[in-house]
Design brief:
Blueprint lengths: L3 H11 L6 E4 L2 E4 L16 E6 L2 E6 L5 E3 H8 L1 H13 L10 H16 L3
Antiparallel strand pairs: 1-2, 2-3, 3-4, 4-5
Helix pairs in contact: 2-3
Length: 119
């Protein structure tokens, strides 16, 4: 299942994408905004957002454009992308293993002092 934030921004973007449809959980179909899909048939929609693990990706089966949802959003709407990136960052943990840089620096300086002390 895509993250709540990804789903939220897909829904915000959906009004700008022609023939947008939610096919099922983690799969959305629409006309590609980059190539415009078929010029003969206005009902064809070959652009897709699809889920791979927990991330969303974009793929157009007409022009071959393929990218992450984040980069798709950056190309299509820079202002909306900035909000998306800020919200994604604010929901992530600050430190990977619960350590701060100051703790790591302190350990390094202590081990350095131990080596320089005479025996």
């Amino acid at each position: 299942m895509p993250s709540y934030i990804d789903t939220k921004y897909v829904n915000l973007l959906s009004s700008r994408l022609l023939l947008f449809k939610r096919k099922n959980e983690g799969l959305y179909n629409f006309r590609c905004p980059f190539c415009g899909d078929s010029q003969k048939s206005k009902t064809k929609a070959r652009g897709y957002f699809y889920q791979k693990r927990t991330d969303l990706f974009f793929r157009c089966h007409n022009c071959g454009e393929s990218t992450t949802f984040s980069n798709f959003l950056k190309k299509l709407d820079g202002v909306l992308y900035k909000d998306y990136a800020l919200e994604r960052r604010s929901n992530r943990p600050r430190f990977k293993y619960g350590r701060t840089r100051s703790n790591q620096t302190r350990k390094t300086s202590i081990s350095y002092q131990d080596r320089s002390s005479p025996n």
